[in-house]
Amino acid sequence: MKKLFLVIFLFLHVGILIINNSVMTRETYVDFFDQKSNYFDFICGEIIRHPFFQIYGKYTGIETGYGFFGFNVRSTGFVINEYCGKTSNPEFNSLEAENRYGSLRSLYIDYLKYQFPENRKTNQVDGMLEDYLDLVLKNVSAFSMRGKVVDCDSVLTGYYILEVPKLVDLNNGAELNYELLPVKKFVYAIGK
Amino acid sequence: MNFYLSRNLFMPLVNRILDIFVYKIGFINPVWISSFRIYGSLIFLFHFLSILPDFYTFWGQNAIVNPDIMDANIDNIVPTVYDIHQLINKYVALGFQTVVSSFAIIYMISLISLTLGFMSKISAAIALLTHLVLMQSINIFIYGVDFMTTICLFYFLIFPVGKYHSLDAYFLKKSNPDNFDHGIFLRLFQIHWCLAYFFSGLSKALGPTWWNGEAIWKALNSYNQAGLFNPELWMPYPLLMTLMGISTVLLELLFPIGVSVKILRKPWIACIIMMHIGIGALLGLYFFSIVMILINLVGFWFPYFKAQTIFSR
Question: Which of A95, A144, B216, B277 has the most CB atoms within 10 Å of its CB?
Answer without folding.
Answer: B216
